[in-house]
Amino acid sequence: MPAEHTGAVGSRWPVRAAYRWEGLILALLAGVALWASLGVDGFANGSNVSFLLLDTTEIALMVLTMTLVIVAAEIDLSVASTLGLSCAVLGQLWNAGLPIEAIMPICLLVGAVCGAFNGLLVTGLGLPSLAVTIGTYALFRGLAYVLLGDQAVADLPPAYTGLATASLGPIPLASLLVVVLAGVAAVVLHATGLGRSIFALGSNVEAAFFAGVRVKRIKFWLFVASGTMASLASLVYTFRYASARADNGMGLELAVVAAVLLGGVSIFGGRGSLPGVLMAVLLLGVVRNALILADVANEVLNFVTGLLLVASVLAPNLGAVRRRRTTPSVEGKSVS
Amino acid sequence: MTTRTPWRPAALLTGLVLLTAACGGGTTRSDVAQQQSSAPAGAASSAAADPNAPIKQGLKVAFLPKQVNNPYFTIANQGGISAAAEYGGEGKEVGPSDASASSQVSYINTLTQQKQDAIVISANDPNAVVPALKQAMAAGIKVVSYDSDTAADGRQIFVNQASAEDLGRTEVQLLAEQIGHKGKIAVLSATPNATNQNAWIEFMKDELTKPEFKDMELVKVAYGNDDDQKSFTETQGLLRSYPDLAGIISPTTVGIAAAARYLSDSPYKGKVKLTGLGTPNQLRKFVKDGTIDAFELWNPADLGYLASYAAAALASGQITGAEGERFKAGRLGEYTVGAKGEVLLGKPTVFDKDNIDDFDF
């Protein structure tokens, strides 16, 4: 395994920049949280923290795999549609009388198949993931509507819907799931050979290939993981809202990609860290929660979130742009 | 993924699924249905209503529409906020900019945090909002639904804009006036299985059996599927099949607009009468050019106004949401809570060229 290779590809600059960026997000998060605790009524108490965490559960789940995908210089825009399709499958099978315990693994399987479909098109046919997943974004959502139409399946078992909203003190059970999976994803990305390979193929796919990284195989499985995670998120979503519908999670893919980029992951791949992304998810959640509590109108809310995102894409890339000017042959062209 | 089999985990998962299914254990839909039917039917609220309690001052009432910046809800919520000003309360409108099923939930949680006295909500998804609303009610917040109801255990009162019976019967009466109680009429509906429209059409048919409408004959119910183009061509087809048609009732906002557009450019303009459910902004032009004499809809401002007073009455302990309780709603007068906590706004408002400019939604 060309473990140390990554260090050579991404020069010292971006590494330091990444730390600085995470520091900035952390400072911003602390600042906003402090401001909200002091200045916004009803922010700093257990039940609000619980609402806040619960509201970010699905996004927090999906960013875990999305981070890996984007670090590998790919993207998966079909996650929210996979979530919708998985909800529709759940609803339809529940209507058909299957036990929920059997439906849940089937849903995960559906997500895995969706991801595998993306992965095959990207790695097998060498198509760009942006185009592929815009296509499957429409395809999976369309399929969800074909399955469930505009009906909502709501008579789900209270034991499970209760579990999805239950919390231990101020910490929702669903967030514990996020913590466990985040730990796994962070270890994979930052402490294993596989993680180093993902960084390597993200920063320079050809170099990685010649260094022996199994580029296609890794990418394929990243898409499968992304799809599976989307259907895991669909289970949380469905039980949390006690409602399985084809339009569940509409638009979430943008929130997911946004959080990943705000977390300092380079859209060109090869750079980023999971802790940064998770802090970004929290930051977006805290900002949103505090502004709604402060009765800020929805339009302003979208404006503020948008501003954060533009800044997040702009700031880390200012350095990259500078570097590209000085050294003409650079990464970023790595379309596999 | 060249040589190894990537299918092994998938096969394993499938095996697991089949295993769980085969074991026959687990919770199915019928289990849940059984549990729910055996559960005691709705715990009655313990607090007794005091009809003479004064309305509390400074009540905080939040209006949570399906979507903000939607003219219909803007008007309804302005009605509600002005009512709050009348009874010495404080009203505000908050909500998502997209009408998705779950976006309302974080707003409900926020309002719970803000310790509002009442939440007035039009639900995007009758079920998805219930867990959050239950938490709100557990925190002592009163919940009124308006326009679109939630599941019954998610609110104390539902302010219903119009009953199916009123809408069905008044539309026949409206058209009868316009065509002199005589002639062939048709209905241009939404989809063949649209619950609301079908209920209204049943009441239309029933109204037509009354002696004063004996010279009116319903010749056809056409379906435009709430699609503009389809509704347009269906209108065209109706007039081709029945050139002596006297009038059309279209109890759907999409249908009436499409039919009006067809009629206004045809020789039937003004001769074939058109009425039904529509909004003033959509039909203003056709009322002014004589295509439509009058149509109807509930007044959204009154709907918000009534919902606001219902919220205040709940928060002040005048009512609890039980059938038969009564409360006063400012200029609209006194209302009685019906079965399942429903309060009915009343007869729909008729819009014609004399009053249409008073409405902007």
From TrEMBL, chain A:
<dbReference type="GO" id="GO:0005886">
    <property type="term" value="C:plasma membrane"/>
</dbReference>
<feature type="transmembrane region" description="Helical">
    <location>
        <begin position="251"/>
        <end position="269"/>
    </location>
</feature>
<feature type="transmembrane region" description="Helical">
    <location>
        <begin position="276"/>
        <end position="294"/>
    </location>
</feature>
<keyword id="KW-0997">Cell inner membrane</keyword>
<feature type="transmembrane region" description="Helical">
    <location>
        <begin position="59"/>
        <end position="90"/>
    </location>
</feature>
<keyword id="KW-1133">Transmembrane helix</keyword>
<protein>
    <recommendedName>
        <fullName>Autoinducer 2 import system permease protein LsrD</fullName>
    </recommendedName>
</protein>
<feature type="transmembrane region" description="Helical">
    <location>
        <begin position="160"/>
        <end position="188"/>
    </location>
</feature>
<dbReference type="GO" id="GO:0022857">
    <property type="term" value="F:transmembrane transporter activity"/>
</dbReference>
<dbReference type="InterPro" id="IPR001851">
    <property type="entry name" value="ABC_transp_permease"/>
</dbReference>
<keyword id="KW-0813">Transport</keyword>
<feature type="transmembrane region" description="Helical">
    <location>
        <begin position="102"/>
        <end position="121"/>
    </location>
</feature>
<feature type="transmembrane region" description="Helical">
    <location>
        <begin position="21"/>
        <end position="39"/>
    </location>
</feature>
<keyword id="KW-0812">Transmembrane</keyword>
<feature type="transmembrane region" description="Helical">
    <location>
        <begin position="127"/>
        <end position="148"/>
    </location>
</feature>
<feature type="transmembrane region" description="Helical">
    <location>
        <begin position="300"/>
        <end position="319"/>
    </location>
</feature>
<feature type="transmembrane region" description="Helical">
    <location>
        <begin position="220"/>
        <end position="239"/>
    </location>
</feature>
<dbReference type="Pfam" id="PF02653">
    <property type="entry name" value="BPD_transp_2"/>
</dbReference>
<keyword id="KW-0472">Membrane</keyword>
<keyword id="KW-1003">Cell membrane</keyword>
UniProtKB/TrEMBL annotation, chain B:
<protein>
    <submittedName>
        <fullName>Rhamnose transport system substrate-binding protein</fullName>
    </submittedName>
</protein>
<dbReference type="InterPro" id="IPR050555">
    <property type="entry name" value="Bact_Solute-Bind_Prot2"/>
</dbReference>
<feature type="domain" description="Periplasmic binding protein">
    <location>
        <begin position="61"/>
        <end position="318"/>
    </location>
</feature>
<feature type="compositionally biased region" description="Low complexity">
    <location>
        <begin position="33"/>
        <end position="50"/>
    </location>
</feature>
<dbReference type="GO" id="GO:0015762">
    <property type="term" value="P:rhamnose transmembrane transport"/>
</dbReference>
<dbReference type="GO" id="GO:0030288">
    <property type="term" value="C:outer membrane-bounded periplasmic space"/>
</dbReference>
<dbReference type="InterPro" id="IPR025997">
    <property type="entry name" value="SBP_2_dom"/>
</dbReference>
<dbReference type="InterPro" id="IPR013459">
    <property type="entry name" value="RhaS"/>
</dbReference>
<dbReference type="InterPro" id="IPR028082">
    <property type="entry name" value="Peripla_BP_I"/>
</dbReference>
<dbReference type="GO" id="GO:0030246">
    <property type="term" value="F:carbohydrate binding"/>
</dbReference>
<keyword id="KW-0732">Signal</keyword>
<dbReference type="Pfam" id="PF13407">
    <property type="entry name" value="Peripla_BP_4"/>
</dbReference>
<feature type="region of interest" description="Disordered">
    <location>
        <begin position="29"/>
        <end position="50"/>
    </location>
</feature>
<feature type="signal peptide">
    <location>
        <begin position="1"/>
        <end position="24"/>
    </location>
</feature>
